[in-house]
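User: For my dataset I need records formatted as: sequence, then structure tokens, nothing else. Please produce one.
Assistant:
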Amino acid sequence: MERAPRIENYPAPASSGPGLPVNQDLLLMQKGMSMRKVRSKNWKKLRYFRLQDDGMTVWHARQAGGSAKPSFSISDVETVREGHESELLRSLAEEIPLEQGFTVVFHGRRSNLDLVANSVDEARIWMQGLQLLVDFVTSMDQQEWQDQLGWDDWFQRGDKNQDGRMTFQEVQRLLRLMNVEMDQEYAFQLFQTADTSQSGTLEGEEFVQFYKALTKRAEVQEIFENFSADGQKLTLLEFVDFLREEQKEGDHASDLALELIDRYEPSESGKLWHVLSMDGFLSYLCSKDGDIFNPTCRPIYQDMTQPLSHYYINSSHNTYLVGDQLCGQSSVEGYIRALKRGCRCVEVDIWDGPSGEPIVYHGHTLTSRILFKDVVATVAQYAFQTSDYPVILSLENHCSWEQQQIMVQHLTEILGELLLRTTLDGLLPTQLPSPEELRRKILVKGKKLRTLEEDLEEEEEEEELESELEGEQEDEPELEAQFESESQKLSPRSKDKKKEKKFKPSLCPSLSALVVYLKSVSFHSFTHSREHYRFYEISSFSETKAKSLIKEAGNEFVQHNVWQLSRVYPSGLRTDSSNYNPQELWNAGCQMVAMNVQTAGLEMDIHDGLFRQNGGCGYVLKPDFLRDAQSSFHPERPISPCKAQTLIIQVISGQQLPKVNKTKEGSIVDPLVRVEIFGIRPDTTYQETNYVENNGFNPYWGQTLCFRVLVPELALLRFVVKDYDWKSRHDFVGQYTLPWTCMKQGYRHIHLLSKDGTSLQPASIFVHICTREGLEGDES
């Protein structure tokens, strides 16, 4: 028999401290409802969905009262969309009422979940309830996750018979679930200490105390006591000393200390007296202010007024694909995901479609097809949800003249004012415009029949002709004929009507005219580009060609990328949509290194690591030596290490690492930490700690790693936790990647991400970071 929802365990919104909200929608969701789960036009099945008592997970069964299994966790959900926004549900509009449908959109690359409720009201209950929980989870910081949801979540999972009490046998099972193998005698000692009622079981507050004893951070307590005179609190001056000496916060440490005490000290008296308790100190270290990623690098902090060629641009390859390159599905969801993760250059392969409508797919393959107009509508809707900076539509046009005209119609009518159709001021520029000047504009990249100069010259002459004709209405028929005659003289396309009928250029002039600053041209050599090409022309390189050019003429490539854009794309042999390492191309200043963003892995971790900074806006300013037209930098042979640095990392401990094999209850990880550096070739290296046996809950390493880096401005750090396996490659547990220039010194937490790039909260590792100028041992 199904138990009643235990909402009473959740504090009401007015209660002290954060807690799950009490809400009528949530109460109804916890009772459960039948809905149709839709996977395709042919797969639509009735399922019974129910929000669990913890308020954090949704389970489903074939029917009410049937055997249930987890469907998703609220922390996995990014947002909830209405039915009419679903590509799949729209395709079934004739048989499914869209107003009763909704879509659960997950973080990362997990497929969306399309559901159809039995009524509009039931759909509304789930949409509003899920969004309420998503907003609630999003608002929680790391310490709140650990303190508020942590113990309750573990209690729900450990209380096997769901009687609201936990025996020692259940506690032992729970420890295995928590990814820790603990001495039985010590575990029983903690259990007895928490069992203040001496009932032989843990209930409510008793389990909270047991959980707090388990999660006690001895290594943080030691740091706290090193700076605290009485071991009970940090005075304002003691906290300032810690921020200045260890955290390298510099001159603003005094002001920062006051801000942090006010933000993280839980007691009002502590705030009043400007002191920080151990709980407040831990909250600070677990927060964004104690994160390894410098908070000043999170918002847009770079100069956005330089030419486009001075920035790395977040770019996607074959954006429409959500699978492989041969048989994968094409979907507008590919564009939604790419744009929402900050991509500013998306690719569209367009071919002639049936009924006169151009289609998008990977030509000459079995990939599915989608309408070009749906892609354009999706871009219009999502282009500027994550970033206001310009979006580039990289068009691979394979259409006939007639369907190119349809393309132009869709681009101009759907995008409207968002579409850039001429230079910003109508004048011929001398360099590419900046991201700031192009805010909320969509640019077309593609082939062009003429030069930008010819386009602007014709526009100017036509405007002059029009102005001459204004006010001459009495001679209107004669003047119209004169205007048409003059226009034909000006346009090489209209010179000879007979010739035009015999020959049409393979590119439609109206589509050509939409290409302004991004004219695609073939690459011959760097000398040829300097002598014949203009700043608004862009060449594309396969990864193989680009890497070859870096080795042959690395410095010339760097100089080329100062004034002209380069796009690099994956090899055609990557039919599985695998990726290449973008770092080698960034080292030469290549701006648009296009990735198969649908494929997770090391390469996308590096890509996401670079673009994590600057507000995630999709544009990152290149280092100054990659923006200098006279630069002598060669990525394969960097000059003297005048800006070289030494990095010393103490890997201290880990917190609540996830299991690698969740299906085996007794499986516990043996974690090790691997620190990888990616940059120029001599800087690319890694080191790793020893492994800790049978402890993923609170492993302690206490090991120091040292790196020497020649060009830190180009370096990225990747922290990877792996599960040691002597028989095979170590299994991936979690990772976090960031630019060297965004790294904070001192005691820092690194909050881990999954292979898919989603948060593994509350999993983290605790480190101490120190950087020194020059290479260790250098007298300089």
